[in-house]
């Protein structure tokens, strides 16, 4: 454990030096090294601990919603999952990179946005997919697959995209990211085991976990508000706000577009759209707190909280539009006859053979 902490500290020191060099050479907005951490050591440790607790509870709760048999069925027919994974790790990282370039973000801002863009899908997408009458089995399997694949895909994508920023090639804190990913997969596996071996406890854990999650999030928000004060405006800059608004919307739009191109059915299209646009914000927050010291990340570790506000608001707007569309023009899925035909085609049976 001592050697692991030493590795993270060493990586953070190298990162700070790289950041200072990059900022001094390319930006007139001041250096990251000039930022003084507003957190006392006690508050900083408390926020770190609560962030890790939030991540652990979230991933255990997510695991409790997963059923091994349903996962196997989607693995046998992996087309939907394959499209979703390509969308998740293709569209979102590229979107984050393009926005960071177009908006001329500073070094630490660019890395923050890239980390958010390279994160796997979050469990919030499962709720949105349910509200949109999507394929829930597909949604849960997609979240699971993207979380597992993130262990290799996320460091690789961050390495590749950081090459696009001069002087930033060695600034990605891979050790901290790997630790955070392990912290994600282990509790998720615990949740899956609980749901498989003791399913009667799954709903209780999920409900209790949601309550603790809300309380912990409020606690972090209060501590940050007290400690940061006026410096919170750094994370509310026009460029950062523009990223928070545009990134999830582009993810929803392109995820749906890709599923249309590959001729997925309606529920799958809506599910893939939600899975693409929704990021695992808890994981992003944990990475930013674990991998970066306070003097490097500053108030930018609050970016995931800003992102999730717009991610949720835009998803709720799409849900509202979908529900209004259904009310005034019912979809074919609500017609019993057409639904039977739809299911038959989806299962590979000719429509004419359905009685």
Automatic annotation (TrEMBL):
Entry's transmembrane regions: 46-68, 80-104, 110-132, 139-162, 174-198, 210-234, 240-260, 298-322
UniProt keyword terms in alphabetical order: Cell membrane, Glycoprotein, Ion transport, Lipid transport, Membrane, Sodium, Sodium transport, Symport, Transmembrane, Transmembrane helix, Transport
Function: As a major transporter of conjugated bile salts from plasma into the hepatocyte, it plays a key role in the enterohepatic circulation of bile salts necessary for the solubilization and absorption of dietary fat and fat-soluble vitamins. It is strictly dependent on the extracellular presence of sodium. It exhibits broad substrate specificity and transports various bile acids, such as taurocholate, cholate, as well as non-bile acid organic compounds, such as estrone sulfate.
Similarity field: Belongs to the bile acid:sodium symporter (BASS) (TC 2.A.28) family.
Highest classification ranks of the organism: Eukaryota, Metazoa, Chordata, Craniata, Vertebrata
Official protein name in the record: Hepatic sodium/bile acid cotransporter
Reactions catalysed, as given in the entry: taurodeoxycholate(out) + 2 Na(+)(out) = taurodeoxycholate(in) + 2 Na(+)(in); taurohyodeoxycholate(out) + 2 Na(+)(out) = taurohyodeoxycholate(in) + 2 Na(+)(in); taurocholate(out) + 2 Na(+)(out) = taurocholate(in) + 2 Na(+)(in); glycocholate(out) + 2 Na(+)(out) = glycocholate(in) + 2 Na(+)(in)
Subcellular location field: Cell membrane
Pfam families referenced in this protein's UniProt entry, alphabetically: SBF
Lipid bilayer topology: Multi-pass membrane protein
Source species: Silurus meridionalis
GO molecular-function terms, A-Z: bile acid:sodium symporter activity
GO-annotated cellular components: plasma membrane
């Amino acid at each position: 454990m001592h050697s692991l902490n030493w590795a993270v500290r060493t990586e953070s020191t190298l990162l700070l030096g790289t950041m200072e060099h990059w900022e001094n050479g390319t930006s007139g907005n001041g250096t990251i090294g000039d930022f003084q951490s507003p957190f006392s050591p006690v508050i900083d440790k408390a926020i770190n601990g609560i962030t890790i607790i939030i991540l652990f509870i979230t991933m255990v709760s997510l695991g409790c919603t997963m059923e091994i048999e349903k996962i196997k069925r989607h693995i046998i027919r992996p087309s939907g999952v394959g499209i979703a994974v390509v969308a998740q790790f293709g569209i979102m990282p590229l979107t984050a990179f393009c926005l960071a370039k177009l908006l001329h973000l500073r070094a630490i801002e660019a890395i923050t946005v890239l980390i958010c863009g390279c994160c796997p899908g979050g469990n919030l997408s499962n709720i949105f997919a349910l509200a949109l009458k999507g394929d829930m089995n597909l949604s849960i399997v997609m979240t699971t697959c993207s979380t597992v694949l993130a262990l290799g895909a996320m460091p690789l994508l961050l390495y590749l995209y950081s090459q696009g920023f001069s002087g930033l090639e060695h600034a990605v804190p891979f050790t901290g990211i790997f630790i955070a990913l392990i912290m994600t997969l282990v509790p998720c596996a615990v949740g899956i085991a609980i749901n498989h071996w003791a399913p009667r406890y799954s709903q209780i854990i999920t409900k209790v976990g949601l309550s603790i999650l809300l309380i912990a999030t409020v606690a972090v928000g209060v501590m940050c508000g007290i400690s940061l004060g006026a410096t919170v405006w750094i994370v509310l800059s026009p460029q950062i706000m523009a990223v928070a608004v545009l990134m999830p919307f582009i993810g929803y739009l392109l995820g749906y577009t890709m599923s249309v191109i590959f001729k997925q059915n309606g529920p799958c299209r809506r599910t893939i759209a939600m899975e693409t646009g929704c990021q695992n914000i808890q994981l992003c927050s944990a990475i930013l707190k674990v991998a970066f010291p306070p003097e490097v990340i500053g108030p930018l570790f609050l970016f995931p909280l800003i992102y999730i506000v717009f991610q949720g608001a835009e998803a709720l707007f799409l849900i509202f539009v979908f529900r209004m569309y259904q009310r005034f023009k019912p979809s074919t899925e609500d017609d019993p006859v057409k639904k039977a035909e739809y299911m038959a085609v989806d299962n590979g049976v000719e429509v004419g053979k359905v009685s």
